Request: fold
Amino acid sequence: MTDLSAAEMRVLVAVDSEGSVSGAGVRLGLTQSAVSHALRAAEQKMGAVLFSRGRQGARATSAGAAAVGHARRILRLMEVMKTDTRTAAHGEATGTIRLAAFRSAAFHLLPGVLVRFGQRHPRVTVDVRIVPDLGRGIAGEVIDGRADVGVVSLPVYVEGLVSKELYAEPYVLAYPQGHPDPRSLPMIDWHENCSGETRRWLARQEWIPPGDITVEDDGVVMSMVGHGLGAAIVPRLSAVDAPVKVATVGLGEDAPMRRVGYVTTPELVGSAVVRDLLGELRTLKA
Reply:
C-alpha cells in the first residue's frame, strides 16, 4: 500500500474541518476537482471510504475519523520536526505549541507556567484554548491532533496518550456566605469528568439532593452560588477568586479528590520545546 502524501493528509484534515469538499478547496487554495481527486486517491491508498459525501457536505466515516486523527498528528509532528531542527541549528526555538486546558486551570495555574516558559523561549508562542473537560474533552483534542498538550482531570479514558499526575486537590462545598446550614440548600450541579472514586463518594452521600440546576461551567456555578441559588460541590481550584458572597467548607476527611495532570502524545514527548513546557507544568501546585 502506498503511503499518503503530506498534501493528501492536508486535504483529509481540511475536508473534515470544513465539512465539505468545496470548503476544503477554499481553505487550501485548490479547485474542488483537485480536492476530490486527492480524496479519492487517499481512499484508494487506505482501502476504505473516508468520507460520506452528499448534499449536506462531507462527513468522516469511522475509518475517516481515524485517518484524519492520524493525519493531524503526523502533520503536526512534521511542523515540530522543523522547529526542533531549527532550534538545534540556531540555538533558539521558534514556533507555536497548542495547549488545551479546563477553565480554572487556564485562569489560575497557567499564567505562571507561561511566564516562566516564555522567559526560556521568548520566540515560541503558546496558543491556549479552554476546552470543557467532559467526555473525550481535552484528551480527545490531543489524540485528534488539535492540541499538543492538555491539562486534564485524571484519569483519562482515551488510549494512546502519555499522561502524568501533577497534583491532587479536594472537592469542597461552595455556598452563599453566611448561610447557617449549607447542606440544606438546593444543589447546583455541573458537567465535569471525574474519577469513579469521586462518583462513588457522591452516590454515598444521602444529604446531597438531586441537582435543581445543571450547568456546564464551574465559573457559572460560582456566580449562581453567589446569587444565593444554592450550593455546589466543586474542586477547590474552582472556588479561587469566586464572588465575595461565596464561602467554602471542607467535606470531611474522606472528601473526594480531583487529580490534575497533563496529557500529550508519545511522539511529542520527543520534542525539546514540548519537554520544556511539560517541565514547567510539573512545577504546578494547587
Remarks:
- The first strand starts at residue 51 and ends at 54.
- The CA atoms of residues 138 and 150 lie 6 Å apart.
- The radius of gyration is 22 Å.
